Amino acid sequence: MKPSIAVATVLLAGCGTVYVKTNYALGETREAVVGSPLVTVKRTGLSGTFEQQLIYGGKTGTIVHVSYREMRYAPHAAPDFTQELHYDLAESSVIAFRDMRLEVVDVTAEKIVARVLKDDGAAALSSRIQAEERERAGETIPP
């Protein structure tokens, strides 16, 4: 499976340029083995780098184990944060965490295959970037 990487640049008023990099695209199917990231979002700006990951942790019966991890790379950064998540596939094939939705296509104790259904954070970011590009090009932006 060939990995895709999305990179966006956002100019925030007074904050400078923020670079956003993901290892997925909406609608794309992702695969991860135990202990590796299924999805990653990395933001880099003047205040440092902030990275978020959903990491596959295996399966017990119908329960899928996922870890959410966030890391900050900056002077005086907050310590890393990890949260353990558990999803029962007997109830739903969708993993929902914050603004992201992943549909589990296939899962074993060693690997998971999931499709990225929704990422409101990425969608909002994409809309903002497109609006800024239209504005720079002199196009009228609808309200």
Structure description:
It is a single chain. The protein is mainly beta and 143 residues long. It has one domain (6-136). The protein contains one helix and ten strands. It has one helix at 120-136; strands at 6-12, 16-22, 29-33, 37-45, 48-60, 63-73, 81-88, 94-97, 100-107, 111-119. The protein has a six-stranded antiparallel β-sheet. The longest helix is centred in the C-terminal third of the chain and has 17 residues, at 120-136. Residues 9-14 have low confidence and may be disordered.
Quick recap:
With 143 residues, the chain is mostly beta strands.
So how many helices? 1
Q: Roughly how many Å is the radius of gyration? A: 17 Å
Multimeric status of the protein: single chain
How many domains? The number is 1
Question: How many beta-strand runs?
Answer: 10
The best one-word shape is: globular
Helix- and strand-based class? mainly beta
Helix content: 10-25%
| Biggest beta sheet summary | 6 strands, antiparallel
What value does the average pLDDT take? Answer: 81
List keywords for this structure.
four-stranded antiparallel sheet, 1 helix, globular, 10 strands, mainly beta, 143 residues, single chain
SSE inventory with pairings:
Elements: E1 6-12, E2 16-22, E3 29-33, E4 37-45, E5 48-60, E6 63-73, E7 81-88, E8 94-97, E9 100-107, E10 111-119, H1 120-136
Antiparallel strand pairs: 1-2, 2-4, 3-10, 4-5, 5-6, 6-7, 8-9, 9-10
